[in-house]
Task: structure prediction
Amino acid sequence: MTDKYQLDTLAVRAGIERSQFGEHSEALYLTSSFVFKSAAQAADRFAEREQGPIYSRFTNPTVKVFEERLAALEGAECCIATATGMAAILAMTMGLLKAGDHVIVSQSVFGATIQLFVGVLKRFGLDSTFVSATDVSAWQKAVRPNTRLLFLETPSNPLTEISDIAAIAAVAKKAGALLAVDNCFCSPALQKPLELGADIVIHSATKYLDGQGRVLGGAVLGKREVIHQGVFGFLRTAGVTLSPFNAWVILKGLETLKIRIEAQSASALELARWLEQQPWIDRVFYPGLPSHPQHALAMKQQKSGGGIVSFEVKGGKDAAWKLVDSTRLVSITANLGDTKTTITHPASTTHGRITPEARAAAGIGDGLLRVAVGLEALDDLKADLARGLKA
Ligand SMILES: *Cc1c(COP(=O)(O)O)cnc(C)c1O
Result:
């Protein structure tokens, strides 16, 4: 199916396997285990001589439909669904790496991802070096003989820095390492890291894939030989499993992914252009604006700028908090990728636990705000932010 159809079609059709009832919508299999016809069949299933579900920690038909659909959208041979986005990153590292290995990580990745590498995996003997998201030569210089994985997120959060996936994939290949890309901000509707040379794609399905702020989920995608052995093996044993209910909800999210993210991206571009005109704003960070330092690269590897806009208001933290507190429509919450627009002050929330010096080095100022554009009317969003800007 994957070869024949376009993304729009795959998003609503891929992976469906109807039961004997011929249901039209994907069935939700809320069951922990599956019944065998005989002792011999049970033995065949466990030995993988016969395909089929066994136990929902590692084989559930609803989860499988989600995995096959997301694999079709990303152009991946194999997808393993996980309980959350963080569980996906954990399953990838635990499944593919060992003590003594070295990882190069973009310094602009999600805060919990940094914490996972330095606060947890380091205790198990995994060494990591953090480098600039945008400086390819820094990735090259950080390579060691034991480097096994390069990990990045593009566009980054909250400054929307763009990493050159093809160039960093070349660094990984030369080093004999794998490149993993967290594709959370773009989703396969806007960016396909595997086509650009990445080996692994990570998703927090909690964001745009569900897209309606309902459930947590995650996924690891890539070549079967890379993913099935290591990552599936870890999930089967460790149980970082996606619930079938959440898989079913996210499946329904995938059906509208493209039209949602295209609409959000178009609104975000208009909002970014409007923000650039406002005298109370120092700077706007949005990959779709010509003023973005990696605008050309962004337009080469993404279909559009995406739904996230960040901007620095004049007057630092007080002005930023005043703007947040005078909104009546947008939600003050750290989530993103929802149909409801959200606003966040990164310096005191998502990036509040790192030192002021580290924040400054990362370019996250006290006046910075991040807006994840939803599906409301653009004029209503502008009016909501304008009230705060005037305050
Ligand atoms: C939210 C997020 C994650 C973690 O996902 P959870 O589903 O919350 O565990 C990872 N990467 C990025 C870029 C995110 O935005």
Observations:
- The radius of gyration is 21 Å.
